[in-house]
Amino acid sequence: MASEENDAPIWISDDGPYVVVTDPLDGSRNIDASIPTGTIFGIYKRLEELDDLPTEEKAMLNSLQSGSRLVAAGYVLYSSATILCTTFGSGTQTFTLDHSTGDFILTNCSLEIPRRGQIYSVNDARYFDWPEGLRRYIDTIRQGKGKYPKKYSARYICSLVADLHRTLMYGGVAMNPRDHLRLVYEANPLSFIVEQAGGRGSDGKNRILSLQPVKLHQRLPLFLGSLEDMEELESYEDVQQRVNPGYEV
Ligand SMILES: O=P(O)(O)OC[C@H]1O[C@](O)(COP(=O)(O)O)[C@@H](O)[C@@H]1O
Question: From which domain of life does this come (predicted)?
Answer without folding.
Answer: Eukaryota
